[in-house]
Each structure stands twice: as C-alpha cells, then as structure tokens.
Amino acid sequence: MEPAFFIYAFVGGLLAMAVRLPPLAGFLVAGFALNAMGYEMTPELTTIANLGVTLLLFTIGLKLNVRSLLQPVVWGSATAHMVLSSALFLGVLIGLKALGLRLLQDNDWSSMLVLGFALSFSSTVFAVKVLEDRSETSSLYGRIAIGVLIMQDIFAVLFLTASTGQLPSVWALGLLLLIPLAPLIRHLMNRLGHGEMQVLFGFLVALVLGYQLFEWVGVKGDLGALVVGMLLAPHKAAASLARALFNIKELFLVGFFLSIGLLALPTWEHLGVALLIMLVLPLKTVLFMLIFPQFRLRARTTVLATLSLSNFSEFGLIVAALALAQGWLSADWLVILSLAVALSFVVVSILNVFSERLYRRIRPLLPEAPAGRLHPHDRPVELGDAQAIVLGMGKIGRGAYQRLEKHYGLRVLGIDNNESTVERWRAQGFRLLEGDAVDSDFWEKILLSEGIQLVLLAMPHHAGNVFALEQLKGRKFAGKVAAIVEYPDETKPLQKLGADAVFYVYEEAGLALADSVMAASKEA
C-alpha cells in the first residue's frame, strides 16, 4: 500500500474537520489530489474499499427491521422517485444533445435512459455514513432513507442481471435455506462473547456466508452481506456485533472515498459536463421533496430524509461500467459520472452539516399536514403525568429510568428514536414514546408540563445531548437537567450551557462499583 494514501487521507480528513466538515469530504479531495499527482488505484486499495462497502451493508442489515421495507413510504417513494428521476434526467440529456453537447452526439435515447437511470441512484455509503455520524440511523427519517436506499440497491441488482443476460445460477434457489439456518447461526452468536471471536464471526458471515456465497450462485455479493445481516438482526447481540465492527468498517471506508477520486484523470471537458450534471441535482432533490409528503410525513422528516439522499451514487458507476462493457456508453461518461459522484458528496456533506439550520430557514415555505393525518410515527408527543424524562433508552438510560422509578418513586417517561427499542422495552413494562430529541420540532410538539422535575440526557451522540440542552434552556425549562458523557472532554460544553449535573460514564461506573463493594463488605 502506498504510504501517500495514508498521509493524504489523514491530512484531508484533518483539514475537513478544521473547517467543520465531515472527514469524508477531505478523503474525497485527497483522492483527487493523489490522482492529479499521478497515483493510480492499486489492488490493495480496491480490496480495502470493497471490504468497507461490504461491511457497511452487513452492519446496515444488523440494524434493519425487515418490516420497514414493506411500508408504502419506503417502496412507494423509492419506486416513484426512480421512475420520475430517470425520466427527468433522460429529458435533460436529450436537451443537452439538442444544444450540441459533443459527448452525447453518438448516444441514442436508450443509452441516455441508462445514463439517467445511473444518475437516479443515491449513495448508500454516503447517506449511512452521515446518519451514523449523527446516531440517527434509527430515527424515522433515517429509517426511511435507508429503506429507500435498499430498494434502490435491489433495483440495481435486477438491472445488472437483466442487462448482462446472465441469470443467477439454479443453485441460487438454495439461498432460501439461509432462512431456516438463521436460528442456528444466531444460536452460535450466544457462545462467542464480545472479543476477537465476535469480530471474526462478523467477517466470516459477512464475507463468506454473505458476499462470497451469493457471488458463487450469480447474485451480487454486497446484497448477500445485507441479507445475512438482516437474518442476524433479531438476535440480542446484533447491535453489539455492529459496534464491534464499527471502527474497522470506518477505516476501510476511507479507502472507498479515496478510490472515488482515483477512478480516472478528468479533462476540463469532463469537469465541465460534470458541473452541468451537478446543476440538475437540485431537480432530483425537489422530486424527493414532492414525493415524501404524499406519504403523510412532516416537513422536517421530508427535508432531512431528502438531504440524506440528494447525491449521486457509487452504484451509478457500477451501472455505467456495465453500460461501457456492453458498448452503450463511452469511457468518457464513466469519468464524468465519477466526478459528479465525488462533487455531489462534497456539496451534500456541507449541506448536511447545516441541515437543521436549512430546515428552519425554509420551514415557513413548507406546507404541514394536520397532526391527525400524519404518519403514526411522525405525530406530536404528549408526556402525560411524567415527572422525569429520560432521553435515550440505551443501557444507561434504562438503568437511570429504573433507578428514578424504583428508588425515588418518580413517574418516569423514556423517549427514544429507535422504533424497535421502544417496542421491545414497552412490552416489558417501561413507559416509552418514540421521539427524536435532536428534532427542532420535537421541542415544539412536545407538551412540557409543570410537573416535570428532571430531564436526563442519555443519548449516545454528544451533539444530540448538546442540542437537547440548548432547546431546554432556550424554552426556560425550570426543572433540573442532567447529562451523560462518554469522553471527559465532552463535560465542559454541557456545563457551560447550564447542565445542573454532568456524569462521565466510566467514572460513575467505578464509583458505583466501589460503593457496592464496600456495602457488601460491611454486610459481611
């Protein structure tokens, strides 16, 4: 592996962070800089990039509720957008050909339709990376965005199969045996613990049972990794496995973002056409903005889901590569599309940093449906007679909930943005509501009563806790606010904002352990 790949990736990520952009924007720019210096893709970087994408899809599957794909808002919006955006880009390309764009003069309407189809995809890697950075993969808009992306991936697999004329092997029917085998595989997870065997198991099922097995029978391997992840998702250790793979997956994805810039060396003509295509990207965004409200989503859910999907996709490059092999497109278009994908990543990563601000700016222009007509998971939250609220019902949040309820006798309400978490713990007697505390509308639709004495911020994402505290203080909340932090340097920002108490997770766990040991020794 070229040392320059590591150096430029690190410097690019560092510079992006310095200007408050996601590191992935820096990785993309680093790829273009390496390309300009004469570096090319290497087999090692290709392998790392492919591993990153495969592990990403596997971890998506681990968190995915299959029922979400069956919701009309997912398959309906994905299908409508795919059809309309393909037609839209076809119309634009026909118009550019009529205006004399040289690179389109040899293309007929069918090849331009393939090009429009390639541009209609949104990037799974990019969108999930943005959602994970915010800890919002389980929020309503995050679930919808991921569902749409998976439907697009399915459309792509169907297209690739139909275009090559190579049907999957007859042995592909044997993949159905994975369904009855899934309980046995999940049972094995119980014996692995949380160390290196768990990580090794993740690689084994993602890369062998998922990717390679599906490739052997003529089905796209990345889809196999996703499917196997979905089969393991019901297991209680699925979230733990996803966390164990998180840092490895993130490192491999650096290779993916570098590879986008290294795909080909563009000319000024290529760059000019790519910029023309970028001018059409807002039309793709507008389509999402028009389609999502038809499924009774609120304005904020529509805006944030749209921003997550308003980019071009690496899957479009796969479609273009196939079209090149079939003689439908020239090699120029693969270079142009790679430029358009990279540029869209940079632009949309900036927009997503300011997504809440953008939403608040355009909110007065957006129509809002009456609460009674909204999607069931997008309706206002009522707190009832709660005296304490716990925001974030992970392990720490649940522990705090039980302590406040049993030891202090408070009426506690838990709020979490993960539908599965809410359903699971509500079935065990917890009072839970689904809600997104980093939603600016959440604090307006929630009915804070005078009976609330305490709000505990126990969300896994520090920025979410900071945002929630800003909203509480901005609304003159009279009760106490406490927060949990995972790293010591996160304490001061919360204290400056006025948190009454901030607890460092590991320090408090140590104190509690010491107290328990001393109490037990006295009793003995």
Automatic annotation (TrEMBL):
Keyword Transmembrane annotated: yes
Any single GO BP term: proton transmembrane transport
Organism domain of life: Bacteria
Cellular component GO terms, alphabetical: membrane
Coiled coil: none
Pfam families per UniProt: Na_H_Exchanger, TrkA_N
PROSITE patterns recorded: RCK_N
Gene3D superfamilies, per the entry: 1.20.1530.20, NAD(P)-binding Rossmann-like Domain (3.40.50.720)
All copies of domain RCK N-terminal, residue ranges: 385-503
TM segment ranges: 7-33, 45-66, 73-97, 109-128, 140-162, 168-185, 197-214, 226-246, 251-268, 274-292, 304-327, 333-354
Name of the protein in its database record: Cation:proton antiporter
Membrane topology of this protein: Multi-pass membrane protein
